[in-house]
Design goal:
It is built from 12 helices and 10 strands. By secondary structure, it is an alpha+beta fold. It has 2 domains: about 80 residues; about 240 residues, Bira Bifunctional Protein, Domain 2 (BirA Bifunctional Protein, domain 2). Helix 2 packs antiparallel against helix 4 and helix 3 runs antiparallel to helix 4. The relative contact order is 0.11. The structure holds phenylalanine (PHE). Phenylalanine binds next to strand 9 and strand 10.
Length: about 350
């Protein structure tokens, strides 16, 4: 058997990729046998070269092809071996698989989005680092307005060329302005999101969540506001006996303004929403101040609106019975396991929002 026949046989019989690579280097590498033959062509005269050249080139091609073929075969065998050994048992019960749970804040935001989507509200967003103009001025709180001091505001380091430093938004109300500017009227939006105030105890954390609601249209009045809030609270607390009271209040960006109180009672030693034995405040609301409409570029003679805002974390506490707000942000797995929601139980109006 010639050397080249032996080489092709060795290649076809190489037991693994490493052995095959060794054969390749021995034949085609820098100082391989075939490489040496190719080099020898250079010192031959034309006649010799014409005789040997084609043979040597043909050999190199045959060896290259044989190596590629063996390599493919070895790789296919390796894949078969892995497919046979690395099995995934898809028949394992799925109930054991999901480990994480949905945080109550996310759950309640999903519930709110579901309820308000059914009433024709779209979700709007704005930045958490906000211009003072959006957070205060456009909302009818000019500089030195005492209402600015009501919010314990976090101010950012001023940046070069900035006339006034930006703030961490103290409420979701600036999204009212952005939504009116971007979308014009008529308008129906909710704006859930994070807000920041320098405050911390059992019922206050420096970051918490609010949801804003805004409706702008022609001939909008307080009756629309009241119906919307009553409908929302009944759907959210999943009870028909939810009663509300609207108490005159003050917000610079609404006129008139009302705090919304909801009735609650004791049931089995727990405070539950429903009935009218006791009252607690759950929302701020009012008719959008004409100056706010104008600041956002709308003509207050043509458009009216109502707005409301409330704390998402507080709604979650009221509905699901947590007592300490700080635990929401402790990332304690035991708390999350206890109060978290199954990831696949998505809130729907037909199936129950708080399933
Ligand atoms: N932005 C107010 C707050 O944070 C709530 C509010 C929103 C009141 C919209 C009226 C209308 O307290």
């Amino acid at each position: 058997m010639s050397d080249s026949e032996q080489l092709l046989r060795d290649i076809a019989g190489a037991g693994d990729l490493a052995a095959l690579e060794k054969l390749r280097v021995a034949a085609l590498g820098k100082s391989g046998t075939i490489t040496a033959q190719l080099k020898s062509l250079g010192s031959m005269d034309a006649e010799e070269r014409a005789a040997h050249g084609p043979k040597i080139h043909a050999l190199r091609e045959a060896v290259t092809a044989a190596i590629a073929e063996r390599k493919a075969a070895l790789e296919a065998a390796e894949l078969d071996r892995r497919l046979a050994t690395e099995k995934l048992d898809l028949s394992l019960p799925a109930a054991q698989a999901p480990q994480g749970t949905v945080h109550p804040v996310s759950q309640v935001m999903d519930e709110l989005a579901e309820i308000f989507a059914d009433l024709g509200f779209a979700v709007a967003e704005g930045p958490e680092i906000e211009d003072q103009w959006y957070n205060f001025t456009a909302l009818n709180m000019p500089e030195a307005h005492p209402a600015r001091a009501m919010h314990d505001t976090f101010y950012c380091e001023p940046r070069d060329g900035e006339s006034e430093p930006r703030v961490l938004r103290t409420h979701t109300s600036p999204v009212q302005i952005r939504a009116m500017q971007n979308q014009g009227a008529p308008l129906r939006i909710i704006a859930p999101g994070r807000v920041y105030r320098s405050d911390s105890d059992a019922t206050h954390t420096p970051m918490f969540h609010q949801i804003e609601g805004l409706v702008v249209d022609r001939a909008i009045h307080l009756g629309h506001l009241r119906w919307t809030l009553e409908t929302f609270l009944k759907a959210f607390f999943e009870r028909d006996d939810v009663a509300i009271r609207m108490i005159p209040s003050y917000f610079p960006f609404t006129e008139p303004s009302a705090d919304v109180h909801v009735g609650w009672s004791w049931e089995g030693g727990r405070r539950v929403i429903g009935g009218s034995e006791n009252w607690m405040e759950v929302l701020g609301s009012g008719m959008v101040h004409p100056r706010v409409l104008a600041n956002a570029g709308l003509d207050p003679d043509e458009w009216q609106g109502f707005a409301f805002g409330t704390g998402v974390d507080r709604l979650a506490m009221l509905k699901y019975g947590m007592s300490d707000l700080r635990a929401f942000f402790d990332a304690d797995l035991r708390w999350l396991k206890h109060y978290g929601f199954r990831a696949l139980a998505v809130p729907t109006l037909s199936g129950g929002v708080g399933a």
